[in-house]
Design goal:
The protein has 198 residues and is α/β, with parallel strands linked by helices. The chain has seven helices and six strands, in the order βααβαβαβαβαβα. The chain has a six-stranded parallel β-sheet, sandwiched between helices. Helix 2 runs parallel beside helix 7 and helix 5 packs parallel to helix 6. The longest helix is centred in the N-terminal third of the chain and has 17 residues. The protein is globular and about 50 Å long.
């Protein structure tokens, strides 16, 4: 039984593709590449009738939902209604579902599991930033929920490439999560390679 390697009834999660995460050069240099790869995945998913969920991190200025690190540093970010919290305008998210999160994992105190049940999702494709934080936390919680995870390698980035490599290796070896290119994943969607054609 190939329990961890089955891309059946998938959904695409685009995580934290927001202006605020691309303010520093470490991630800004990957912006065009990531946006292009995420758009290819989103377009192919729509054509294959695979749900696309655009996940955003949003905080409040009153500190009520800040993380421990934010409280300790007395420094908040990604506030509701600000440019930092906006999705990158170059992303093609027509028809996507928006999900707001407060912590690294898209599962923590959100309606993600409910959405996945509603759409009868049985596996996840993850793309976005950052590989060692929000991607890894979401992937770990997906494993706990018995959902196979596929990581779109060319649609992921980190400000710390070495830490990213270690994290992705851990997810691959410990949770048996698959790391594939966007093209390889698109070929496995319903309709296969036809999903990439206009």
């Amino acid at each position: 039984m190939d329990a961890t390697g089955s891309l059946q009834s998938p959904t695409l999660l685009l995580i934290d593709m927001q202006e605020g995460f691309f303010e520093t050069e470490d991630l800004a240099q990957h912006r065009a590449r990531l946006a292009s790869a995420c758009n290819k995945l989103a377009v192919a998913a729509r054509k294959a009738e695979v749900p696309v969920i655009a996940v955003r991190t949003v905080h409040k200025k009153d500190k009520s939902i800040w993380t421990l690190k934010m409280l300790e540093d007395d420094q908040g970010y990604l506030f509701k209604g600000t440019g930092q919290a906006r999705i990158l305008p170059e992303l093609d998210l027509a028809g996507s579902i928006e999900l707001i999160k407060r912590r690294d994992s898209a599962f923590w105190a959100t309606e993600l599991l409910t959405l996945l049940l509603q759409h009868r999702v049985a596996s996840l494709i993850l793309a976005g930033v950052s590989s060692e934080t929000c991607i890894a936390a979401t992937a770990t919680d997906a494993f706990s929920a018995n959902l196979p995870v596929f990581l779109a390698r060319d649609a992921l980035a980190s400000a710390d490439p070495d830490f990213e490599d270690v994290t992705l290796k851990f997810l691959q070896e410990h949770y048996r999560q698959r790391i594939l290119s966007s093209e390889q994943l698109i070929a496995q969607l319903p309709g296969g390679a036809a999903a990439t054609k206009n």
